[in-house]
Amino acid sequence: MAAQPVSQLLRRFVRSCARGCSSVAPVTQPRPGEPSRPSTEELSTRLQFLREHAAPFSAFLTDSFGRQHSYLRISLTEKCNLRCQYCMPEEGVPLTPKADLLTTEEILTLTRLFVKEGVNKIRLTGGEPLIRPDVVNIVAQLHQLEGLRTIGVTTNGINLARLLPQLQKAGLNAINISLDTLVPAKFEFIVRRKGFHKVMEGIHKAIELGYNPVKVNCVVMRGLNEDELLDFVALTQGLPLDVRFIEYMPFDGNKWNFKKMVSYKEMLDAIQQQWPELEKVPEEESSTAKVFKIPGFQGQVSFITSMSEHFCGTCNRLRITADGNLKVCLFGNSEVSLRDHLRAGASEEKLLSIIGDAVGRKKREHAGMFNIAQMKNRPMVHIGG
Ligand code: SAM
Ligand code: SF4
Q1: Which DSSP helix (H) or strand (E) runs through 124?
Q2: Where do the record's region annotations for Disordered lie (predicted)?
């Protein structure tokens, strides 16, 4: 991946120093012959210098609650080769005319701008991103962007085994694969299409190519797959997987019902009954997952608790829909068309001020699980997971 800008390196250095310079950290004397270490005083002077000289995080990507949005998710297409029950109706969703979707060049212009402002992680999603013919090229172009540390994809896995070697070469370094059941017949029922073995092949290809962890997204729904929690956990024993159990969320057309949602607490309880030694793993500050591990297992399990315990307070994500709308919250209805401004010839400054205004309007948190179920929420395929 291309080098990071100095401002980002400094920020990270400041953070790591801040951890290392804790007043309770023991100060050890250097052994004879060892280079002498800087004193606490020297370190704090250096820290002060770095704080004063490090570029602050982009004001355009910082909201009124101080959240710094360094993670961008882009929907590459609204189309999908599956019809998951929790995501879209059997007949599919109305598709935006092709001319209204972002072109590759537009995607790259926008991402360049976001990365310049401090976005260091981009996830390609959809619809199914791996049906977009130029996906490998998009990854390769993103890989050129200075400052971008992570390029990830969230995929249903159907085309993954075939495309992953090229995607990896192009620079893809993080992967999430959706799989809600380990029973082939149930897979067909949930996604309304065939393809279980292709998804499994994709997961194994990702492991073979060294992705670690390979994240497996599993939307848990009562009466559908909550009886498979322990089977999914068992997969983490010998494989470097991060199985992520996702609470079922309401979107237009998915017939969400509170009773069908299995909460994080309920899932955790069921797993702990079988595995009382399950232990919590510390997560990154902006992580949306609560992470656990069974000692001795290669992989881990996580919970995405968007409904029962939202993580809005540390949300660092922005989304761009396939038709070019910037969406600052998965569950908010306010969207602004970056595509229209781009096509009208807006300058970089103009685009940044539009983005900054939208980010500035981001609410402290989503409206709560019962309210969002009553709201209009564009289907997930439009928003891009
Ligand atoms: N097609 C790709 C896939 O399935 O991985 C990417 C797009 S999909 C919309 C992104 C993620 O959203 C998937 O992991 C999917 O399981 C999850 N998802 C879709 N609808 C959901 C819902 N109603 N509740 C929770 N997660 C959902
Ligand atoms: Fe397609 Fe992903 Fe939605 Fe399933 S969850 S229908 S694979 S976009």
Answers
A1: strand 121-125
A2: 23-42
167-199 pLDDT tens trace: 999 999 999 999 999 999 999 999 999 999 999
- Output the pLDDT for position 278: 97
Separation of CA 134 and ligand 2 centre (Å): 19
Pick the ligand that lies closest to the CA of residue 83.
2
Q: Does domain 67-383 have CATH number 3.40.50.300?
A: no
Ligand 2: does its nearest atom lie under 6 Å from the Cβ of 369? no
Taking all residues of the chain, what is their mean pLDDT, rounded to a whole number? 85
219 lines ligand 1 (CB under 6 A): yes
Question: Ligand 1 centroid to 170 CA: how many Å?
Answer: 24
Q: Specify the pTM.
A: 0.84
289-293 vs 335-337, strand pairing mode? unpaired
Q: What is the pLDDT, as a whole number, of residue 230?
A: 98
Exposure pattern of 137-172 as b/e (b: 16+ CB <10 Å)? ebbbbbbebebbbebbbbbbbbbbbebbeebbebbb
Q: Supply 33's token pair.
A: 């012959």
